[in-house]
Amino acid sequence: MKNRPIWIRHASQMVTLAGSSAAPLAGKRMSELGLLENGSLWLEDGLIQMVGTTDEVAAVYQERLGEAEVIDAAGKLVTPGLVDPHTHLVYAGSREHEFAMRLNGATYMEIMNSGGGIHATTRATREASHETLFKESLQRLDQFLLHGVTTVEAKSGYGLTLEAELKQLEVAKALHEHHPVDLISTFMGAHAVPPEYRECPDAFVDYCVDVMIPEVAKRRLAEFNDVFCERGVFTPAQSRRILQAGIKHGLLPKIHADEIEPYEGAELAAEVGAVSADHLLRASDTGIVKMAEAGVIAVLLPGTAFFLMAASADGRKMIDAGVPVALSTDCNPGSSPTVAMPLIMNLGCLKMGMTPAEVLAAATINAAHAIKRGHEIGSLEAGKKADITLFNVPNYMALQYRYGVNHVHTVIKAGVKVVEGGVRL
Ligand SMILES: N=CN[C@@H](CCC(=O)O)C(=O)O
Ligand SMILES: [Zn+2]
């Protein structure tokens, strides 16, 4: 049965980001939100049919106004559904004990090198059944939706064997099919060197390159290929091999770069033409310039820096250097166990020198471009998917100013209302 059209009207402020579908916004263009006062949208067949002022939309649809379900957005901010372009959504278990260890002075890498961290979640994820993984990840996905997020990227990387990596990717696929939030999958077999390869890490790289990447690509279980390029994990040379193998099999490159130490990850991202380089807390100035030249999107994760008690990436410097910046939660059980994209935007302002306008562009259209979906989501334009979030604040400045509260009121996914009054329907 066909859903009724939805007519959103009288929005106090609407962020359209019109004209941003072809390429990510960079430099001063990151502040061009395409604001509309008394904004209105006509949604039908899962798509945005018209964007304009309430009077303009009413004039075009005057014969059909009675058919529509009306959403009165007076007093509210209307934005594109938020997009999270970097998550480790599918995993089993929890690591709050490691948080306590870090509060007592242990570092993230020390915990990982002593068999905890990513290794602990890998053990739990290998042991978990498809059903358990699905159930645990589903709860997080519901929470994403309640925080206004309508699309998430989801990485594998807690299996580290072909079988367990495929299990994670298959759970992501099942969640995508089952849940209103869309999932875009990334293969990240090169997330850590598993203990069985500790003495011969290059043999694990061979396994990624020769076995896992070709099989994942053949089964079409991922669109992107990611690697944790960090001292003590994968070297730039190993990372290059992994990313090039992905490219050969049609998986687009992404990279966890320069998170803990400067390690020429940003430079490598530019060299291989990565869609995005993520983290970048310790990226070099040369790396930033190279990313700008190569058009690599910086996916910044201020929640991770906050939770690891580290200095944040310099978002301001990257925007001023012409790098398109996107924001993400990095949702994972170790360095950022959160789904709160609005809080991530707040941290973008408070910790990375970004403006309230820039963080909104970074969490919508630039995030969409970071997962190659800029043509279908991330802005409010006729023909795009009807993914919309309504916040209980009158304007985008207030969304950043009234921090630490979930202001999401209504979420519409592909033209269907899925959250109302902050409650999942
Ligand atoms: N840094 C590597 N990977 C994740 C953390 C994974 C974990 O600790 O479980 C990240 O992006 O922060
Ligand atoms: Zn990550």
From TrEMBL:
<feature type="binding site">
    <location>
        <position position="191"/>
    </location>
    <ligand>
        <name>4-imidazolone-5-propanoate</name>
    </ligand>
</feature>
<keyword id="KW-0369">Histidine metabolism</keyword>
<feature type="binding site">
    <location>
        <position position="86"/>
    </location>
    <ligand>
        <name>Zn(2+)</name>
    </ligand>
</feature>
<feature type="binding site">
    <location>
        <position position="158"/>
    </location>
    <ligand>
        <name>4-imidazolone-5-propanoate</name>
    </ligand>
</feature>
<feature type="binding site">
    <location>
        <position position="330"/>
    </location>
    <ligand>
        <name>Zn(2+)</name>
    </ligand>
</feature>
<feature type="domain" description="Amidohydrolase-related">
    <location>
        <begin position="77"/>
        <end position="416"/>
    </location>
</feature>
<keyword id="KW-0408">Iron</keyword>
<feature type="binding site">
    <location>
        <position position="330"/>
    </location>
    <ligand>
        <name>Fe(3+)</name>
    </ligand>
</feature>
<dbReference type="Pfam" id="PF01979">
    <property type="entry name" value="Amidohydro_1"/>
</dbReference>
<feature type="binding site">
    <location>
        <position position="158"/>
    </location>
    <ligand>
        <name>N-formimidoyl-L-glutamate</name>
    </ligand>
</feature>
<feature type="binding site">
    <location>
        <position position="95"/>
    </location>
    <ligand>
        <name>4-imidazolone-5-propanoate</name>
    </ligand>
</feature>
<dbReference type="InterPro" id="IPR011059">
    <property type="entry name" value="Metal-dep_hydrolase_composite"/>
</dbReference>
<keyword id="KW-0479">Metal-binding</keyword>
<feature type="binding site">
    <location>
        <position position="86"/>
    </location>
    <ligand>
        <name>Fe(3+)</name>
    </ligand>
</feature>
<dbReference type="GO" id="GO:0008270">
    <property type="term" value="F:zinc ion binding"/>
</dbReference>
<dbReference type="GO" id="GO:0005506">
    <property type="term" value="F:iron ion binding"/>
</dbReference>
<comment type="pathway">
    <text>Amino-acid degradation; L-histidine degradation into L-glutamate; N-formimidoyl-L-glutamate from L-histidine: step 3/3.</text>
</comment>
<dbReference type="GO" id="GO:0050480">
    <property type="term" value="F:imidazolonepropionase activity"/>
</dbReference>
<feature type="binding site">
    <location>
        <position position="256"/>
    </location>
    <ligand>
        <name>Zn(2+)</name>
    </ligand>
</feature>
<feature type="binding site">
    <location>
        <position position="259"/>
    </location>
    <ligand>
        <name>4-imidazolone-5-propanoate</name>
    </ligand>
</feature>
<feature type="binding site">
    <location>
        <position position="334"/>
    </location>
    <ligand>
        <name>N-formimidoyl-L-glutamate</name>
    </ligand>
</feature>
<dbReference type="InterPro" id="IPR005920">
    <property type="entry name" value="HutI"/>
</dbReference>
<feature type="binding site">
    <location>
        <position position="335"/>
    </location>
    <ligand>
        <name>4-imidazolone-5-propanoate</name>
    </ligand>
</feature>
<feature type="binding site">
    <location>
        <position position="256"/>
    </location>
    <ligand>
        <name>Fe(3+)</name>
    </ligand>
</feature>
<keyword id="KW-0963">Cytoplasm</keyword>
<keyword id="KW-0378">Hydrolase</keyword>
<dbReference type="GO" id="GO:0005737">
    <property type="term" value="C:cytoplasm"/>
</dbReference>
<feature type="binding site">
    <location>
        <position position="88"/>
    </location>
    <ligand>
        <name>Zn(2+)</name>
    </ligand>
</feature>
<feature type="binding site">
    <location>
        <position position="332"/>
    </location>
    <ligand>
        <name>N-formimidoyl-L-glutamate</name>
    </ligand>
</feature>
<dbReference type="InterPro" id="IPR032466">
    <property type="entry name" value="Metal_Hydrolase"/>
</dbReference>
<feature type="binding site">
    <location>
        <position position="88"/>
    </location>
    <ligand>
        <name>Fe(3+)</name>
    </ligand>
</feature>
<comment type="similarity">
    <text>Belongs to the metallo-dependent hydrolases superfamily. HutI family.</text>
</comment>
<dbReference type="InterPro" id="IPR006680">
    <property type="entry name" value="Amidohydro-rel"/>
</dbReference>
<protein>
    <recommendedName>
        <fullName>Imidazolonepropionase</fullName>
        <ecNumber>3.5.2.7</ecNumber>
    </recommendedName>
</protein>
<dbReference type="GO" id="GO:0019556">
    <property type="term" value="P:L-histidine catabolic process to glutamate and formamide"/>
</dbReference>
<comment type="function">
    <text>Catalyzes the hydrolytic cleavage of the carbon-nitrogen bond in imidazolone-5-propanoate to yield N-formimidoyl-L-glutamate. It is the third step in the universal histidine degradation pathway.</text>
</comment>
<keyword id="KW-0862">Zinc</keyword>
